[in-house]
Amino acid sequence: MKLNLNDRTCSDDVLPHPSPTVQRRMLATVHTMGALIHPPGSAGPKLQGCLVLPLAGIILAGTACARPLLFAEYDALARATNHDVIILRHDTLRGTTFDIKLRSEPRWYRRYLGTPVENGMRMAPDIGAGPVLRATAFGLEILDNRAASDMPPRMSRRIASACLVEA
């Protein structure tokens, strides 16, 4: 499937290519989700540097740029492609966080942390309120609509501990 984007939607110049370190993190994320990707460059020139997960309906972008940079550009890309967008933000001192834009919702879920779970990745907000999400080979789903800050802390620790034991 070739995604066609018209030239007025977004420009080739505004979407940065990720560094090799960020690219490795993007591939590790796709591997954790168990998803398939389009061959690089096959989805069109405007998606260079992004990984397109066709079965999941997700565009995974990566950057070392700080938040809130690139929200407008990737929001336009989400509307043009009708895909969910995950921006992987890698900082050498702070680690990796994710910003998530579901195509069915107008807002961005910002500063999420990913934890490997069986058949995918659990994504919960690092700071603030927001639902807990799961990213799999078949897309993004809301696991719990309650804010993660409202969940009992033991539940979060138990999930994190289980992932450490399995690895």
How would you characterize this protein structure?
This protein is of the alpha+beta class. It has one domain (12-166). The chain has helices at 20-33, 71-81, 153-166, and strands spanning 51-53, 58-63, 84-91, 95-101, 108-117, 120-125, 132-136, 139-144. The chain has an 8-stranded mixed β-sheet with strand order 1-2-3-4-5-6-7-8, sandwiched between helices. Strand 7 and strand 8 form a beta hairpin. The longest helix has 14 residues, at 20-33. The protein is globular. The chain starts with 19 loop residues before the first helix and ends with a helix. Mean pLDDT is 79; it is low at 149-167.
Task: List the topology elements.
Elements: H1 20-33, E1 51-53, E2 58-63, H2 71-81, E3 84-91, E4 95-101, E5 108-117, E6 120-125, E7 132-136, E8 139-144, H3 153-166
Parallel strand pairs: 2-3
Antiparallel strand pairs: 1-2, 3-4, 4-5, 5-6, 6-7, 7-8
Question: What brief labels describe this structure?
Answer:
single chain, 167 residues, alpha+beta, 8-stranded mixed beta sheet, globular, disordered C terminus
